[in-house]
Amino acid sequence: MAANDLDAYWMPFTPNRRFKANPRLLGGAKGMHYTTPDGRQILDATSGLWCVNAGHGREPITEAIRRQAGEMDYAPSFNLGHPLAFTFASRLAQMTPKGLDRIFFTNSGSEAVDTALKIALAYHRGRGKGTKTRLIGRERGYHGVGFGGISVGGIPKNRMYFGSLLTGVDHLPHTHGLPENLFSQGLPRHGAHLADDLERIVALHDASNIAAVIVEPVACSTGVLVPPEGYLQKLRAICDRHDILLIFDEVITGFGRVGAPFAADRFGVTPDMICMAKGLTNAAVPAGAVAASTAIYDTMLDGADAPIELFHGYTYSGHPLACAAGLATLEIYQGEGLFERALALEPYWRAAVHSLADARHVVDIRDFGLIAGVELSPRAGAPTARAMEAFEAAFDQGLLIRVTGDIIALSPPLIVSESQIDQIVETIRKVLAAVE
Ligand code: PLP
Questions:
Q1: Which of 88, 198, 222, 332 sits CB 3.0–4.6 Å from 140 for a disulfide?
Q2: In the chain, which stretches have pLDDT less than 50?
Q3: Are 93 and 101 in contact (CB under 8 A)?
Q4: Index of the ligand 1 atom closest to the CA of residue 149
């Protein structure tokens, strides 16, 4: 490929000049591996971008997409419908926690987040509590890139660049960084008390002004921040006490990533809404969804002051190709028992990643389900450079990892084998030994 072929594409979340000076391209994908255009195999330790949970190139999904594209390419979903969207919603509702069985389709995680926030506001208004509008997120939360998502998100750069519209929100403290929790295996012991900060926010604004709290059960994109034992249960209890909706953003933690259909199942905490995307279709077709409680749905329909109860939707909500891909994906998850497989692999995964504790530059390691974060000490005067170089070196040695700040984030497809886990860990050890 000639260098000027790279010019037109403005790449997302990428230092464009650095990439284009030395492009790392992917050409094919099957099972646990990508293939580069020059034929090198790359072991995928990140499920693409936390999304290809069943592994790449799954034939039943490909076939379902092919079949659907031949039968009906597109169907509007405003005032019309197609059977597959209803079937997919019903199947999905069987997988979501009990009571969260009304499904609104979107095309991405960002849209799922904005949808859930809008539902929260509309719901309270529909029940005559229209002053409940404040939204509570958390520091170091990532909820996509819509203005709603970055408002409740806790990423300083979003506030720095796009802050002018981010009003009406507050943030809980993040749960990370307590010295007692270093190198925690699974859930850290300390920090459940950080949920009590919600009481402080309620005391400040009064619950009559607060609509919802949104958190990722495990905050992944900002560096794998695992919730302390009891933390999510506490948040649920405080929300209940003050009539505040609790939204779990499970865009990453859904679909087996933590060894259960959803993190809500694994933690035994049922939110009022779940945002999902990524693993929903194994990433083969862009799709997202919000699962809302029946109570929210019924309230909205009963309290509607206009024929359209929720003034919201996307041209591609419930797109036929997404529904076909999603149905085939759910069948693979269930037929192959992939969520149970992830849970069974967790101890092996945990031991393997924590064996990196004595690797060069490593200052902390955390894990939950088939997720791990390996935190590196930042290079003096050049934060994030070391991790970025580790990412590039790993790729050149046939391993795809993800880095965020100075943290390596790992999330292999749920079909990963024990020997592939060993390979992931050995390659990272070698890369860290070589990176300055
Ligand atoms: N929410 C969470 C928790 C995410 O991790 C992500 C993406 O990584 C998003 C939302 C945004 O999803 P998308 O990139 O599909 O818009």
A1: 222
A2: 3
A3: yes
A4: 10
Hey, do 3-54+337-434 and 62-335 end up sharing a CATH topology, with the first three levels equal? no
Q: Is 215 in the pocket of ligand 1 (CB under 6 A)?
A: no
Domain residue ranges of the chain, discontinuous segments joined by +: 3-54+337-434, 62-335
Ligand 1 site, residue 228, Cβ cutoff 6 A: no
List, edge to edge, every strand of the sheet that includes 33-35: 28-30, 33-35, 41-44, 399-400
The pLDDT value recorded for residue 61 is 98
> Which value does ipTM take for this structure?
0.99
Which residue is closest in CA terms to ligand 1's atom 12?
109
What are the residues whose beta carbons fall under 8 Å from the beta carbon of 190, sequence distance 6 or more?
178, 180, 181, 228
Domain 3-54+337-434 has CATH 3.30.1240.10: no
CATH assignment of 62-335?
3.40.640.10
The answer, yes or no, to whether any atom of ligand 1 lies below 6 A from the CB of 114, is no
Q: What is the structure's pLDDT at 164?
A: 78
pLDDT given for residue 3 in this prediction:
46
- Per-residue b or e along 252-270, where b marks 16 or more CB atoms closer than 10 Å to that residue's CB: bbbbbbbbbbbbbbbbebb
Contact present, 238 and 198 (Cβ < 8 Å)? yes
Q: Which ligand 1 atom minimizes the distance to the CA of 249?
A: 3
277 lines ligand 1 (CB under 6 A): yes
CB of 142 sitting under 6 A from ligand 1: yes
Q: Is the CB of 220 under 6 A from ligand 1?
A: yes
Q: Which of 372, 378, 349, 376 is nearest to 364 (CA)?
A: 376
